[in-house]
Amino acid sequence: MLHYESSGVVRQVPRLVIVGAIAVAVAGALATRPSDAQPAAPGRAAVTSQDTGRFDVLIAGGSVLDGTGRPAQRLDVAIRGDRIVAMSATLPRARATRVIEAAGRIVSPGFIDLHAHLEPLLQLPLAESALRQGVTLAVGGPDGGSPLPLGAYTDSVVRATVGINVAYLIGHNDIRRAVMGMSNAAPTPDQLSRMQALVRQGMQDGAFGLSTGLLYLPGTYSTVDEVVALASVAASAGGIYTSHLRKEGIGLLDGVGEALEIGRRARIPVVLTHHKAVGRAMWGKSVLTLQLVDSARRAGTDVMIDQYPYTATHTGIGVLVPSWAMAGGDAEFRKRLAAPALKDSIVRGIVDNILNDRGGGDLSRVQFSRVSWDRTLEGKTLKDWATRRNLAPTPENGAALVLEAMLKGGANAIYHVLDEADVRRIMRHPQTMIASDGRLSQPGDGHPHPRAYGTFPRVLGEYVRVQKLLPLETAVAKMTLMPATRLGLTDRGRLMVGAFADVVVFDARTVADQSTFTAPHQYPVGIETVIVNGQIAVQGAKATGVKAGRVIKHVAKSVLIARQSSTV
Length: 568
Prior knowledge:
- This protein has 568 residues and is an alpha/beta fold.
- The protein has a domain at 315-415.
- Helix content is 31%, strand content 20%.
- Strands 3, 4, 5, 6, 7, 22, 23, 24 and 25 form a 9-stranded mixed sheet that branches.
C-alpha cells in the first residue's frame, strides 16, 4: 500500500479499515483506532524481530513506550535504512554501525504535531524549533490557511529538503478567497462548484483533509451549508475535517455545535483544533464542550480534540475587529473608518472584544509578538503601548491603538485569556491529542508564543512529571499514535517492527520547556536524540543539520480506486 517516488515523497493510503483498539489508563480507557503494520512494499521483504542482518543504528537499554499507551518495556530498538527492523530485550551491539546508549531514558515514537504553522518552512527547512521538541511529523495548513496550489508547493518542499516529515490540509479560507475574494456573501452555485473543485484538487494533491478558520477572514462569512458542501468532498476522498471554531469566547458552545453539525452532515471525522475557552466569562465552560463531544461520539460522530498546554492564545490583532468591518478587503475597511457612524460601531465592537473576548478586559493581557512597523513593541503589551503614548489603559484607548495598528499593516499578538483549570480538564479528556499551533521560529525573529519551542516537552515535564495530571504512557500516546490514527497513518506514531524509524529518546526526569512569554527563544531540555526516517537529526540535544524529512501525502479514495481498477 506504500510506494516510493524518486522525489522523496512518501504516499500513504490513510483511513484503512483498522480493527481493535488501544487502551490507555486515563480514569478508564483512552480508545482510538489502532494502527496495524503495513504490508511490506512491493519487492521488499518483510522485516521481523528475528532479523539477522546488520543495523545502522541500535538504541540500547532504553525504556520503550511504543505509543499504544501500554507501560514501558526495557527493549533494544534496531534500525536499518528508514525502518525499525528489530525490537528485543537484547540485540547484539556488534551488529550495529552506531549504538545509542539509552539506559535510564525513554524511547518513544517521534511526536506528531497535528496543528503546525509551517509557513516559514522554505526559509527554515531544518524546522529546528519543532525538531528539538521531538517532533518528527508536522501537519500544516490549519485554521483554513494552506498553500494553493498544494501540489506545486509540496514539490518545492521536496526540492528544498527539510528536517522533519510534513503533511498538509487544504484550507477553506484560501479556497474561498481564490474564488470569492473577501466577499461577505453566500457563494453562487458556480462559485460553490469551483470551491469544491479546489478541495477535490487539494485532496488529489495529497491533502489529508479540509481545515477551516471560521473566526478568520473570509471563512467567517461562510454558512454551515457551504462548509458542509466542501467537507463532503474531503470526506468522499477519505479526509478529515479540522475546525478552528467560529467562536471560542462568547458563543463557544454554538461554535462547538456548528463543528459537530458539519461533521455529522458531511459524514467526516472531526478535530476540534486547539480547543479552549476564551475569556473570563467562558472559563469553566470546557465542562460543557467536552460533554458535547462525548454526546456526539455516542451518537456516531467521530470527533476528537487537539490542544496546546498554555493559558494564552496567539493570532493577529485583527481578531479584535468586528469581521463585518473588514468585508471586501482593506480599501473597504478604510472607507468604513472614514464614515463616523460606522467607525463608532467598529470601535464599540473592538471595545466589546477587549472586555469579553481576546482582550481579557485588560490591555496588559494583549502582548505583541510580531510588529513589522515597530519592532520595539514586540514582547510589549497593549497597555505598554498606551503608556508610551501617555494614554490611560482603558478599553476605548486600546481600541484606538488597535485601529492604528490595523492601518499600519496589522500585527500579531499573544492573548493571556485562558484558565488553567480548562487547560487541565481538556488535556485529560480521552479524545484529546497534543498539538502546538506553533509557527516555525528561529532565535531573534520576533517574540513568538512559547508553544513554538516548548509544547511537547512542557506536557512531559509540567503536566506529567510535576503536576502528575497524566501518566507518561498516556501523554506519549496523545502525541504519537492518536494523531497518527487520526490521519490514517499505519506505520508512523508507533514503535514496532516495520514502522518508519521516527524515534525520540528523552530523559523523563529532566525533560522540560524553557521558552517563556518573556524570553521565548529557548529550546527545551531533556530531548536528547531525535531520529527522522532512520537518520539522527538531534544528538546530545543539538540539531545535527541532517534533513531527512519527507512530504507525506494522502492518497484520495477516488485515486486509489482508479489505481486498483487499472490492475484488475
